[in-house]
User: Which sequence fits this backbone?
Protein backbone atom coordinates (compact mmCIF):
# COMPACT_ATOMS: atom_id res chain seq x y z
CA UNK A 1 0.00 0.00 0.00
CA UNK A 2 1.40 3.36 -0.89
CA UNK A 3 -0.30 6.71 -1.01
CA UNK A 4 1.79 8.79 -3.33
CA UNK A 5 -1.03 9.76 -5.64
CA UNK A 6 -1.45 13.25 -4.24
CA UNK A 7 0.78 16.22 -3.80
CA UNK A 8 2.80 16.52 -0.59
CA UNK A 9 0.82 19.65 0.33
CA UNK A 10 -2.34 17.57 0.52
CA UNK A 11 -0.90 15.26 3.18
CA UNK A 12 0.61 18.14 5.11
CA UNK A 13 -2.79 19.86 5.17
CA UNK A 14 -4.52 16.70 6.44
CA UNK A 15 -1.81 16.20 9.05
CA UNK A 16 -2.00 19.77 10.33
CA UNK A 17 -5.78 19.62 10.46
CA UNK A 18 -5.76 16.47 12.59
CA UNK A 19 -3.07 17.96 14.82
CA UNK A 20 -5.16 21.08 15.45
CA UNK A 21 -8.26 18.97 16.18
CA UNK A 22 -6.22 16.90 18.65
CA UNK A 23 -4.83 20.01 20.35
CA UNK A 24 -8.34 21.41 20.77
CA UNK A 25 -9.62 18.09 22.11
CA UNK A 26 -6.70 17.76 24.52
CA UNK A 27 -7.43 21.22 25.95
CA UNK A 28 -10.74 19.93 27.28
CA UNK A 29 -9.24 16.80 28.83
CA UNK A 30 -7.85 16.94 32.34
CA UNK A 31 -8.42 16.48 36.02
CA UNK A 32 -9.40 20.04 36.88
CA UNK A 33 -13.12 20.80 36.57
CA UNK A 34 -14.00 24.29 35.42
CA UNK A 35 -17.48 24.13 36.98
CA UNK A 36 -20.29 25.33 34.74
CA UNK A 37 -18.23 26.60 31.82
CA UNK A 38 -16.27 24.36 29.45
CA UNK A 39 -12.51 24.53 29.05
CA UNK A 40 -12.97 26.31 25.72
CA UNK A 41 -15.00 29.12 27.30
CA UNK A 42 -12.33 29.51 29.95
CA UNK A 43 -9.63 29.50 27.29
CA UNK A 44 -11.53 32.12 25.29
CA UNK A 45 -11.99 34.25 28.39
CA UNK A 46 -8.27 34.10 29.00
CA UNK A 47 -7.41 35.02 25.41
CA UNK A 48 -9.86 37.91 25.35
CA UNK A 49 -8.65 39.09 28.76
CA UNK A 50 -12.04 38.69 30.45
CA UNK A 51 -11.69 39.91 34.09
CA UNK A 52 -14.29 37.43 35.44
CA UNK A 53 -11.73 34.60 35.20
CA UNK A 54 -10.45 33.35 38.54
CA UNK A 55 -6.71 33.12 39.08
CA UNK A 56 -6.68 29.34 39.46
CA UNK A 57 -8.71 28.81 36.29
CA UNK A 58 -6.38 31.12 34.46
CA UNK A 59 -3.38 29.20 35.76
CA UNK A 60 -4.78 25.77 34.86
CA UNK A 61 -5.89 26.65 31.34
CA UNK A 62 -2.83 28.63 30.30
CA UNK A 63 0.18 27.64 32.41
CA UNK A 64 -0.74 23.98 32.83
CA UNK A 65 -2.81 22.71 29.95
CA UNK A 66 -2.02 24.95 26.99
CA UNK A 67 1.70 25.09 27.69
CA UNK A 68 1.88 21.33 28.13
CA UNK A 69 0.01 20.71 24.88
CA UNK A 70 2.35 23.03 23.01
CA UNK A 71 5.36 21.35 24.59
CA UNK A 72 4.12 17.90 23.51
CA UNK A 73 3.69 19.21 19.97
CA UNK A 74 7.17 20.75 19.85
CA UNK A 75 9.05 17.87 21.46
CA UNK A 76 7.19 15.14 19.57
CA UNK A 77 7.91 16.88 16.30
CA UNK A 78 11.61 17.35 16.98
CA UNK A 79 12.13 13.79 18.25
CA UNK A 80 10.50 12.40 15.10
CA UNK A 81 12.44 14.64 12.72
CA UNK A 82 15.74 13.88 14.46
CA UNK A 83 15.00 10.16 14.03
CA UNK A 84 14.11 10.54 10.37
CA UNK A 85 17.20 12.58 9.46
CA UNK A 86 19.50 10.25 11.42
CA UNK A 87 18.01 7.31 9.54
CA UNK A 88 18.72 9.12 6.30
CA UNK A 89 22.32 9.77 7.28
CA UNK A 90 23.01 6.26 8.61
CA UNK A 91 20.85 4.77 5.80
CA UNK A 92 19.10 2.55 8.29
CA UNK A 93 15.63 2.64 9.89
CA UNK A 94 17.02 1.72 13.30
CA UNK A 95 19.10 4.86 13.74
CA UNK A 96 17.30 6.99 16.30
CA UNK A 97 18.50 9.22 19.09
CA UNK A 98 17.62 6.76 21.82
CA UNK A 99 18.89 3.56 20.16
CA UNK A 100 22.30 4.94 19.20
CA UNK A 101 22.89 6.55 22.58
CA UNK A 102 22.30 10.27 21.97
CA UNK A 103 19.58 10.37 24.59
CA UNK A 104 21.77 8.56 27.12
CA UNK A 105 24.67 10.89 26.43
CA UNK A 106 22.41 13.89 26.87
CA UNK A 107 20.87 12.44 30.05
CA UNK A 108 24.30 11.68 31.49
CA UNK A 109 25.70 15.17 31.07
CA UNK A 110 22.38 16.69 32.18
CA UNK A 111 22.54 14.56 35.33
CA UNK A 112 26.10 15.65 36.02
CA UNK A 113 25.02 19.26 35.50
CA UNK A 114 22.13 18.83 37.95
CA UNK A 115 24.32 17.41 40.70
CA UNK A 116 27.15 19.88 40.11
CA UNK A 117 24.66 22.69 39.64
CA UNK A 118 23.19 21.94 43.06
CA UNK A 119 26.63 22.15 44.58
CA UNK A 120 27.13 25.62 43.19
CA UNK A 121 23.52 26.71 43.26
CA UNK A 122 24.00 29.33 45.92
CA UNK A 123 26.49 31.12 43.73
CA UNK A 124 24.74 30.85 40.37
CA UNK A 125 21.66 32.78 39.26
CA UNK A 126 18.73 30.58 38.27
CA UNK A 127 18.83 31.15 34.54
CA UNK A 128 22.45 30.00 34.38
CA UNK A 129 21.63 26.76 36.19
CA UNK A 130 18.69 26.33 33.87
CA UNK A 131 20.73 26.78 30.71
CA UNK A 132 23.64 24.79 32.18
CA UNK A 133 21.46 21.68 32.10
CA UNK A 134 20.31 22.35 28.53
CA UNK A 135 23.77 23.08 27.20
CA UNK A 136 25.17 19.98 28.94
CA UNK A 137 22.43 17.86 27.41
CA UNK A 138 23.26 19.22 23.97
CA UNK A 139 26.98 18.55 24.48
CA UNK A 140 26.22 15.04 25.73
CA UNK A 141 24.14 14.31 22.64
CA UNK A 142 26.77 15.80 20.32
CA UNK A 143 29.65 13.85 21.86
CA UNK A 144 27.71 10.58 21.70
CA UNK A 145 26.80 11.30 18.11
CA UNK A 146 30.40 11.90 17.07
CA UNK A 147 31.54 8.81 18.96
CA UNK A 148 28.90 6.56 17.39
CA UNK A 149 29.59 7.90 13.92
CA UNK A 150 33.35 7.42 14.28
CA UNK A 151 32.95 3.87 15.57
CA UNK A 152 30.32 2.66 13.14
CA UNK A 153 31.05 4.39 9.85
CA UNK A 154 34.05 4.19 7.60
CA UNK A 155 34.34 5.14 3.96
CA UNK A 156 30.73 6.30 3.86
CA UNK A 157 29.38 2.90 4.87
CA UNK A 158 27.69 2.29 8.20
CA UNK A 159 28.06 -0.99 10.01
CA UNK A 160 24.63 -1.33 11.59
CA UNK A 161 25.74 -3.77 14.28
CA UNK A 162 28.53 -1.41 15.32
CA UNK A 163 26.12 1.51 15.32
CA UNK A 164 23.65 -0.22 17.64
CA UNK A 165 26.35 -1.70 19.86
CA UNK A 166 28.04 1.65 20.36
CA UNK A 167 24.61 2.92 21.38
CA UNK A 168 24.41 0.07 23.89
CA UNK A 169 27.89 0.92 25.19
CA UNK A 170 27.08 4.61 25.65
CA UNK A 171 23.79 3.71 27.34
CA UNK A 172 25.65 1.35 29.71
CA UNK A 173 28.19 4.01 30.63
CA UNK A 174 25.41 6.56 31.08
CA UNK A 175 23.41 4.14 33.21
CA UNK A 176 26.38 3.41 35.47
CA UNK A 177 27.30 7.04 36.04
CA UNK A 178 23.70 8.19 36.44
CA UNK A 179 23.22 5.35 38.93
CA UNK A 180 26.21 6.51 40.88
CA UNK A 181 24.93 10.08 40.86
CA UNK A 182 21.56 8.86 42.17
CA UNK A 183 23.38 6.97 44.92
CA UNK A 184 25.29 10.02 46.13
CA UNK A 185 22.61 12.63 45.43
CA UNK A 186 20.40 14.39 47.94
CA UNK A 187 16.62 14.27 48.00
CA UNK A 188 15.84 17.20 45.73
CA UNK A 189 18.48 16.12 43.21
CA UNK A 190 17.05 12.60 43.30
CA UNK A 191 13.65 13.91 42.31
CA UNK A 192 15.14 15.75 39.34
CA UNK A 193 17.16 12.72 38.24
CA UNK A 194 14.19 10.37 38.45
CA UNK A 195 12.21 12.78 36.33
CA UNK A 196 15.01 12.66 33.75
CA UNK A 197 15.03 8.91 33.54
CA UNK A 198 11.30 8.47 33.14
CA UNK A 199 10.47 11.43 30.99
CA UNK A 200 7.56 13.78 31.56
CA UNK A 201 5.99 16.86 30.06
CA UNK A 202 4.56 17.98 33.41
CA UNK A 203 7.18 20.69 33.86
CA UNK A 204 6.10 22.60 30.75
CA UNK A 205 6.40 26.37 30.89
CA UNK A 206 6.12 29.04 28.22
CA UNK A 207 9.80 29.95 28.60
CA UNK A 208 10.78 26.38 27.79
CA UNK A 209 8.35 26.35 24.89
CA UNK A 210 9.89 29.50 23.50
CA UNK A 211 13.37 27.96 23.63
CA UNK A 212 12.09 24.72 22.06
CA UNK A 213 10.38 26.70 19.34
CA UNK A 214 13.59 28.60 18.58
CA UNK A 215 15.57 25.36 18.27
CA UNK A 216 12.81 23.93 16.09
CA UNK A 217 12.84 26.90 13.73
CA UNK A 218 16.60 26.82 13.23
CA UNK A 219 16.73 23.05 12.76
CA UNK A 220 13.76 22.82 10.41
CA UNK A 221 14.96 25.73 8.31
CA UNK A 222 18.08 23.73 7.52
CA UNK A 223 16.83 20.15 7.65
CA UNK A 224 13.32 20.05 6.21
CA UNK A 225 14.37 20.96 2.63
CA UNK A 226 16.84 18.03 2.66
CA UNK A 227 14.37 15.41 1.39
CA UNK A 228 16.05 15.09 -2.00
CA UNK A 229 19.52 14.96 -0.47
CA UNK A 230 18.54 12.19 1.95
CA UNK A 231 16.97 10.22 -0.90
CA UNK A 232 20.19 10.55 -2.88
CA UNK A 233 22.15 9.29 0.13
CA UNK A 234 20.46 5.92 -0.44
CA UNK A 235 22.56 5.61 -3.60
CA UNK A 236 25.68 5.86 -1.47
CA UNK A 237 27.61 8.95 -0.45
CA UNK A 238 29.77 9.09 -3.57
CA UNK A 239 26.86 8.84 -5.95
CA UNK A 240 24.99 11.47 -3.95
CA UNK A 241 27.99 13.72 -4.44
CA UNK A 242 27.80 13.15 -8.20
CA UNK A 243 24.25 14.49 -8.03
CA UNK A 244 25.61 17.78 -6.74
CA UNK A 245 24.99 17.20 -3.04
CA UNK A 246 27.71 18.26 -0.66
CA UNK A 247 27.62 15.17 1.53
CA UNK A 248 30.19 16.35 4.06
CA UNK A 249 28.30 19.57 4.77
CA UNK A 250 25.00 17.67 4.91
CA UNK A 251 26.36 15.21 7.46
CA UNK A 252 27.76 17.99 9.66
CA UNK A 253 24.43 19.79 9.60
CA UNK A 254 22.59 16.60 10.55
CA UNK A 255 25.04 15.74 13.34
CA UNK A 256 24.88 19.17 14.96
CA UNK A 257 21.18 19.82 14.53
CA UNK A 258 19.98 16.38 15.66
CA UNK A 259 22.21 16.69 18.72
CA UNK A 260 20.73 20.13 19.35
CA UNK A 261 17.15 18.88 19.00
CA UNK A 262 17.64 15.71 21.05
CA UNK A 263 19.66 17.58 23.68
CA UNK A 264 17.06 20.31 24.13
CA UNK A 265 14.22 17.78 24.27
CA UNK A 266 16.07 15.73 26.90
CA UNK A 267 16.87 18.82 28.94
CA UNK A 268 13.20 19.83 29.14
CA UNK A 269 11.33 16.54 29.16
CA UNK A 270 13.81 13.81 30.10
CA UNK A 271 14.06 10.54 28.22
CA UNK A 272 11.04 9.95 26.01
CA UNK A 273 12.00 7.01 23.85
CA UNK A 274 10.94 5.55 20.54
CA UNK A 275 9.17 8.56 18.98
CA UNK A 276 11.94 8.80 16.39
CA UNK A 277 11.50 5.10 15.62
CA UNK A 278 7.72 4.78 15.46
CA UNK A 279 6.88 7.82 13.34
CA UNK A 280 9.25 7.22 10.39
CA UNK A 281 8.37 3.50 10.49
CA UNK A 282 4.68 4.20 9.98
CA UNK A 283 5.36 6.84 7.33
CA UNK A 284 7.64 4.44 5.47
CA UNK A 285 4.78 1.93 5.30
CA UNK A 286 2.66 4.59 3.61
CA UNK A 287 5.19 6.44 1.44
CA UNK A 288 8.14 4.00 1.13
CA UNK A 289 11.43 5.66 1.99
CA UNK A 290 10.78 8.84 0.02
CA UNK A 291 12.24 11.47 2.36
CA UNK A 292 10.65 14.18 0.29
CA UNK A 293 7.39 12.96 1.87
CA UNK A 294 8.39 11.42 5.17
CA UNK A 295 10.64 14.25 6.40
CA UNK A 296 8.01 17.04 6.55
CA UNK A 297 5.28 14.60 7.51
CA UNK A 298 7.31 13.19 10.40
CA UNK A 299 7.43 16.72 11.81
CA UNK A 300 3.63 16.69 12.02
CA UNK A 301 3.07 13.04 12.91
CA UNK A 302 5.64 13.23 15.73
CA UNK A 303 3.52 15.97 17.30
CA UNK A 304 0.36 13.95 16.89
CA UNK A 305 1.93 10.86 18.43
CA UNK A 306 3.41 12.58 21.47
CA UNK A 307 0.33 14.69 22.10
CA UNK A 308 -1.78 11.54 21.98
CA UNK A 309 0.59 9.69 24.33
CA UNK A 310 0.76 12.61 26.75
CA UNK A 311 -2.99 13.13 26.86
CA UNK A 312 -3.39 9.41 27.49
CA UNK A 313 -0.70 9.45 30.18
CA UNK A 314 -2.50 12.13 32.18
CA UNK A 315 -5.97 10.57 31.86
CA UNK A 316 -5.82 6.79 32.15
CA UNK A 317 -4.74 6.78 35.81
CA UNK A 318 -6.18 10.21 36.72
CA UNK A 319 -5.77 12.04 39.04
CA UNK A 320 -2.31 10.49 39.02
CA UNK A 321 -0.09 10.39 35.94
CA UNK A 322 1.64 7.62 34.04
CA UNK A 323 5.22 8.41 32.94
CA UNK A 324 4.97 9.10 29.22
CA UNK A 325 8.11 7.07 28.47
CA UNK A 326 6.17 3.93 29.42
CA UNK A 327 3.51 4.65 26.79
CA UNK A 328 5.94 5.42 23.98
CA UNK A 329 7.95 2.31 24.86
CA UNK A 330 4.80 0.17 24.73
CA UNK A 331 4.20 1.43 21.20
CA UNK A 332 7.87 1.48 20.19
CA UNK A 333 8.91 -1.99 21.34
CA UNK A 334 6.75 -3.84 18.79
CA UNK A 335 7.87 -1.46 16.04
CA UNK A 336 11.49 -2.19 16.94
CA UNK A 337 10.82 -5.92 16.68
CA UNK A 338 8.94 -5.45 13.38
CA UNK A 339 11.93 -3.62 11.88
CA UNK A 340 14.30 -6.29 13.14
CA UNK A 341 12.19 -9.04 11.57
CA UNK A 342 12.00 -7.19 8.28
CA UNK A 343 15.73 -6.57 8.15
CA UNK A 344 16.72 -9.91 9.63
CA UNK A 345 18.74 -10.79 6.57
CA UNK A 346 20.30 -7.41 5.83
CA UNK A 347 21.49 -6.44 9.30
CA UNK A 348 25.15 -6.97 8.87
CA UNK B 1 37.69 17.85 -21.86
CA UNK B 2 39.57 16.28 -18.99
CA UNK B 3 43.30 16.10 -18.36
CA UNK B 4 45.47 14.68 -15.64
CA UNK B 5 49.24 14.46 -15.38
CA UNK B 6 51.31 12.17 -13.21
CA UNK B 7 48.36 10.88 -11.22
CA UNK B 8 49.52 8.94 -8.19
CA UNK B 9 47.21 7.27 -5.74
CA UNK B 10 47.92 5.14 -2.72
CA UNK B 11 45.50 3.20 -0.59
CA UNK B 12 46.74 1.88 2.75
CA UNK B 13 50.36 2.13 1.59
CA UNK B 14 49.68 0.10 -1.54
CA UNK B 15 50.52 2.13 -4.60
CA UNK B 16 47.55 1.79 -6.94
CA UNK B 17 48.18 4.43 -9.59
CA UNK B 18 51.75 5.20 -10.55
CA UNK B 19 52.22 8.37 -12.52
CA UNK B 20 49.43 8.17 -15.06
CA UNK B 21 49.04 10.78 -17.77
CA UNK B 22 45.66 11.04 -19.40
CA UNK B 23 43.92 13.42 -21.73
CA UNK B 24 40.49 12.87 -23.21
CA UNK B 25 39.03 15.15 -25.87
CA UNK B 26 35.53 16.32 -26.71
CA UNK B 27 33.31 13.69 -28.30
CA UNK B 28 35.69 10.86 -27.47
CA UNK B 29 34.72 7.36 -26.36
CA UNK B 30 37.58 6.06 -24.23
CA UNK B 31 37.61 2.50 -22.97
CA UNK B 32 39.86 1.65 -20.04
CA UNK B 33 40.78 -2.02 -20.09
CA UNK B 34 43.19 -4.23 -18.19
CA UNK B 35 43.42 -7.16 -15.78
CA UNK B 36 41.90 -7.19 -12.27
CA UNK B 37 43.67 -4.88 -9.88
CA UNK B 38 45.26 -2.82 -12.64
CA UNK B 39 43.76 0.36 -11.17
CA UNK B 40 41.03 0.97 -13.75
CA UNK B 41 38.30 1.87 -11.26
CA UNK B 42 40.70 3.92 -9.16
CA UNK B 43 41.70 5.96 -12.20
CA UNK B 44 38.05 6.53 -13.03
CA UNK B 45 37.31 7.58 -9.44
CA UNK B 46 40.21 10.01 -9.39
CA UNK B 47 39.09 11.57 -12.67
CA UNK B 48 35.50 11.79 -11.44
CA UNK B 49 36.58 13.73 -8.34
CA UNK B 50 35.59 10.91 -6.00
CA UNK B 51 38.88 10.27 -4.30
CA UNK B 52 41.43 12.88 -3.40
CA UNK B 53 44.94 12.24 -4.54
CA UNK B 54 48.10 14.12 -3.74
CA UNK B 55 47.37 17.81 -3.21
CA UNK B 56 49.95 18.80 -5.79
CA UNK B 57 48.24 16.96 -8.63
CA UNK B 58 45.37 18.52 -10.43
CA UNK B 59 42.72 17.09 -12.64
CA UNK B 60 41.67 19.71 -15.17
CA UNK B 61 38.05 19.50 -16.25
CA UNK B 62 37.30 21.90 -19.10
CA UNK B 63 40.59 23.66 -18.33
CA UNK B 64 39.60 24.37 -14.73
CA UNK B 65 40.79 22.43 -11.70
CA UNK B 66 38.02 19.96 -10.94
CA UNK B 67 37.94 20.67 -7.20
CA UNK B 68 37.32 24.36 -7.97
CA UNK B 69 34.01 23.53 -9.64
CA UNK B 70 30.87 23.96 -7.60
CA UNK B 71 29.32 20.55 -7.02
CA UNK B 72 25.88 21.68 -8.22
CA UNK B 73 27.30 23.03 -11.47
CA UNK B 74 29.54 20.02 -11.96
CA UNK B 75 26.57 17.67 -11.63
CA UNK B 76 25.12 19.09 -14.84
CA UNK B 77 28.39 18.60 -16.72
CA UNK B 78 29.35 15.13 -15.62
CA UNK B 79 27.73 12.00 -14.24
CA UNK B 80 29.08 8.69 -13.03
CA UNK B 81 27.74 5.19 -13.13
CA UNK B 82 29.33 3.26 -10.28
CA UNK B 83 30.40 -0.34 -10.27
CA UNK B 84 28.75 -1.20 -6.98
CA UNK B 85 25.27 0.20 -6.98
CA UNK B 86 23.20 0.17 -3.85
CA UNK B 87 21.12 -2.98 -3.63
CA UNK B 88 18.66 -1.63 -1.08
CA UNK B 89 16.68 1.44 -2.09
CA UNK B 90 13.08 1.17 -0.84
CA UNK B 91 11.61 3.32 -3.63
CA UNK B 92 9.88 2.81 -6.97
CA UNK B 93 12.01 2.48 -10.09
CA UNK B 94 10.82 5.81 -11.47
CA UNK B 95 11.73 7.54 -8.18
CA UNK B 96 15.28 6.21 -8.42
CA UNK B 97 15.57 7.42 -12.02
CA UNK B 98 14.16 10.80 -10.94
CA UNK B 99 17.18 11.21 -8.63
CA UNK B 100 19.12 11.97 -11.81
CA UNK B 101 17.01 15.11 -12.14
CA UNK B 102 17.74 16.33 -8.58
CA UNK B 103 20.23 18.95 -9.81
CA UNK B 104 17.47 20.52 -11.92
CA UNK B 105 14.52 21.08 -9.60
CA UNK B 106 14.12 22.47 -6.13
CA UNK B 107 11.20 20.70 -4.53
CA UNK B 108 8.79 19.38 -7.15
CA UNK B 109 9.92 17.94 -10.50
CA UNK B 110 8.45 19.77 -13.49
CA UNK B 111 7.18 18.35 -16.78
CA UNK B 112 10.65 18.51 -18.33
CA UNK B 113 12.03 16.30 -15.57
CA UNK B 114 9.26 13.75 -16.08
CA UNK B 115 9.87 13.76 -19.83
CA UNK B 116 13.58 13.32 -19.27
CA UNK B 117 13.19 10.33 -16.96
CA UNK B 118 10.65 8.74 -19.30
CA UNK B 119 13.03 9.07 -22.25
CA UNK B 120 15.88 7.61 -20.23
CA UNK B 121 13.73 4.70 -19.09
CA UNK B 122 12.60 4.01 -22.64
CA UNK B 123 16.18 4.09 -23.91
CA UNK B 124 17.39 1.64 -21.28
CA UNK B 125 14.35 -0.55 -21.75
CA UNK B 126 12.96 -0.31 -18.22
CA UNK B 127 9.86 1.77 -18.90
CA UNK B 128 7.68 -1.28 -18.21
CA UNK B 129 9.29 -1.58 -14.76
CA UNK B 130 8.77 2.06 -13.73
CA UNK B 131 6.13 1.33 -11.09
CA UNK B 132 7.92 -1.68 -9.63
CA UNK B 133 9.80 -1.66 -6.34
CA UNK B 134 13.48 -1.14 -7.08
CA UNK B 135 14.35 -3.80 -4.51
CA UNK B 136 12.32 -6.44 -6.38
CA UNK B 137 14.40 -6.15 -9.57
CA UNK B 138 17.14 -8.50 -10.77
CA UNK B 139 20.79 -7.42 -10.82
CA UNK B 140 20.78 -6.58 -14.52
CA UNK B 141 17.55 -4.61 -14.25
CA UNK B 142 18.96 -2.60 -11.34
CA UNK B 143 22.01 -1.81 -13.48
CA UNK B 144 19.73 -0.43 -16.18
CA UNK B 145 17.83 1.68 -13.64
CA UNK B 146 21.07 3.40 -12.66
CA UNK B 147 22.03 3.76 -16.30
CA UNK B 148 18.72 5.53 -16.89
CA UNK B 149 19.42 7.70 -13.85
CA UNK B 150 22.78 8.95 -15.15
CA UNK B 151 21.33 9.46 -18.63
CA UNK B 152 18.52 11.56 -17.15
CA UNK B 153 21.13 13.51 -15.18
CA UNK B 154 23.00 14.50 -18.35
CA UNK B 155 19.86 15.34 -20.34
CA UNK B 156 20.45 19.10 -20.64
CA UNK B 157 21.71 21.86 -22.92
CA UNK B 158 25.34 21.84 -21.80
CA UNK B 159 27.44 21.48 -24.95
CA UNK B 160 30.14 19.09 -23.74
CA UNK B 161 29.06 16.60 -21.15
CA UNK B 162 31.17 13.85 -19.59
CA UNK B 163 29.93 10.43 -18.56
CA UNK B 164 31.96 7.97 -16.48
CA UNK B 165 30.87 4.35 -16.46
CA UNK B 166 32.50 1.70 -14.31
CA UNK B 167 31.81 -1.73 -15.78
CA UNK B 168 28.31 -0.87 -16.99
CA UNK B 169 27.85 -4.26 -18.65
CA UNK B 170 27.97 -6.32 -15.45
CA UNK B 171 24.95 -8.63 -15.18
CA UNK B 172 23.55 -7.48 -18.52
CA UNK B 173 22.42 -9.94 -21.19
CA UNK B 174 23.91 -9.76 -24.69
CA UNK B 175 21.15 -7.61 -26.13
CA UNK B 176 21.39 -5.03 -23.37
CA UNK B 177 25.19 -5.02 -23.50
CA UNK B 178 24.97 -3.93 -27.12
CA UNK B 179 22.09 -1.53 -26.50
CA UNK B 180 23.98 0.10 -23.64
CA UNK B 181 27.13 0.62 -25.66
CA UNK B 182 25.10 1.93 -28.58
CA UNK B 183 23.48 4.46 -26.25
CA UNK B 184 26.90 5.57 -25.06
CA UNK B 185 28.15 5.77 -28.64
CA UNK B 186 25.14 7.91 -29.57
CA UNK B 187 25.96 10.26 -26.71
CA UNK B 188 29.57 10.73 -27.84
CA UNK B 189 28.43 11.49 -31.39
CA UNK B 190 26.86 14.66 -29.97
CA UNK B 191 30.25 16.05 -28.84
CA UNK B 192 29.98 14.47 -25.41
CA UNK B 193 32.73 12.39 -23.86
CA UNK B 194 32.51 9.02 -22.16
CA UNK B 195 35.13 7.15 -20.22
CA UNK B 196 34.17 3.53 -19.68
CA UNK B 197 35.85 0.72 -17.79
CA UNK B 198 35.21 -2.45 -19.79
CA UNK B 199 36.21 -6.09 -19.53
CA UNK B 200 35.10 -7.32 -22.92
CA UNK B 201 37.94 -6.44 -25.31
CA UNK B 202 35.94 -7.21 -28.42
CA UNK B 203 33.15 -4.86 -27.41
CA UNK B 204 35.76 -2.23 -26.54
CA UNK B 205 37.35 -2.65 -29.96
CA UNK B 206 33.98 -2.40 -31.68
CA UNK B 207 32.65 0.70 -29.93
CA UNK B 208 35.49 2.77 -28.47
CA UNK B 209 37.49 5.47 -30.27
CA UNK B 210 40.47 5.14 -27.96
CA UNK B 211 41.70 2.38 -25.69
CA UNK B 212 43.74 2.80 -22.52
CA UNK B 213 45.31 -0.50 -21.54
CA UNK B 214 46.42 -0.57 -17.91
CA UNK B 215 48.54 -2.97 -15.96
CA UNK B 216 49.56 -2.71 -12.27
CA UNK B 217 48.89 1.00 -11.95
CA UNK B 218 50.56 2.08 -15.18
CA UNK B 219 49.48 2.79 -18.73
CA UNK B 220 50.75 -0.09 -20.84
CA UNK B 221 49.41 1.20 -24.12
CA UNK B 222 47.18 3.95 -25.40
CA UNK B 223 45.74 4.61 -28.84
CA UNK B 224 43.12 3.43 -31.29
CA UNK B 225 41.84 -0.16 -30.90
CA UNK B 226 44.04 -1.32 -33.81
CA UNK B 227 47.13 0.18 -32.20
CA UNK B 228 46.53 -1.17 -28.72
CA UNK B 229 45.06 -4.58 -29.36
CA UNK B 230 48.08 -6.48 -30.64
CA UNK B 231 48.79 -10.04 -29.72
CA UNK B 232 51.95 -9.30 -27.72
CA UNK B 233 50.44 -6.35 -25.85
CA UNK B 234 47.34 -8.25 -24.74
CA UNK B 235 49.28 -11.37 -23.79
CA UNK B 236 51.69 -9.21 -21.79
CA UNK B 237 48.91 -7.37 -19.93
CA UNK B 238 46.74 -10.36 -19.14
CA UNK B 239 49.50 -13.02 -18.92
CA UNK B 240 47.31 -15.17 -21.09
CA UNK B 241 47.72 -16.38 -24.68
CA UNK B 242 45.55 -14.82 -27.37
CA UNK B 243 45.10 -14.65 -31.12
CA UNK B 244 44.08 -11.65 -33.22
CA UNK B 245 42.03 -12.40 -36.29
CA UNK B 246 39.36 -10.96 -38.55
CA UNK B 247 35.69 -11.34 -37.82
CA UNK B 248 34.36 -13.76 -40.46
CA UNK B 249 31.29 -11.60 -41.19
CA UNK B 250 32.20 -7.92 -40.77
CA UNK B 251 36.01 -8.21 -41.07
CA UNK B 252 36.64 -6.30 -37.81
CA UNK B 253 39.50 -7.06 -35.44
CA UNK B 254 38.61 -9.97 -33.21
CA UNK B 255 40.47 -11.18 -30.15
CA UNK B 256 40.31 -14.86 -29.25
CA UNK B 257 41.70 -16.12 -25.96
CA UNK B 258 43.19 -19.47 -25.13
Assistant:
Amino acid sequence: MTLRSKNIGFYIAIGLLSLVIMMITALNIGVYEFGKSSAYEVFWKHISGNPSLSLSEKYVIWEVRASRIVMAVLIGSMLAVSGTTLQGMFKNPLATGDLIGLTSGATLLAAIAIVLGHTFQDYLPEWIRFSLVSVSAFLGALLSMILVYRISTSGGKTNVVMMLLSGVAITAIGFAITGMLIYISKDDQLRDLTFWNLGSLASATWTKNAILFGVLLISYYVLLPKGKALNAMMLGEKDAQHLGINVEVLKKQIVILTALMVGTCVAFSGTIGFVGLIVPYILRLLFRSDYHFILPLSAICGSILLLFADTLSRTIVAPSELPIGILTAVMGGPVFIAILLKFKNNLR
Amino acid sequence: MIKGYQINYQNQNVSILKGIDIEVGYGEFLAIVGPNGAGKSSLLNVLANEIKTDKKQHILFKDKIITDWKLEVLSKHKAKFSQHNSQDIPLLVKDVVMMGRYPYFHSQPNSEDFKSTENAMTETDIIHLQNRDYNSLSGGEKQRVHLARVLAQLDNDVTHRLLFLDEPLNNLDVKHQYKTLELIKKLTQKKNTTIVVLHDLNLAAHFADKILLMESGKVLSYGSPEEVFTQEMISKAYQFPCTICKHPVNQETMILFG
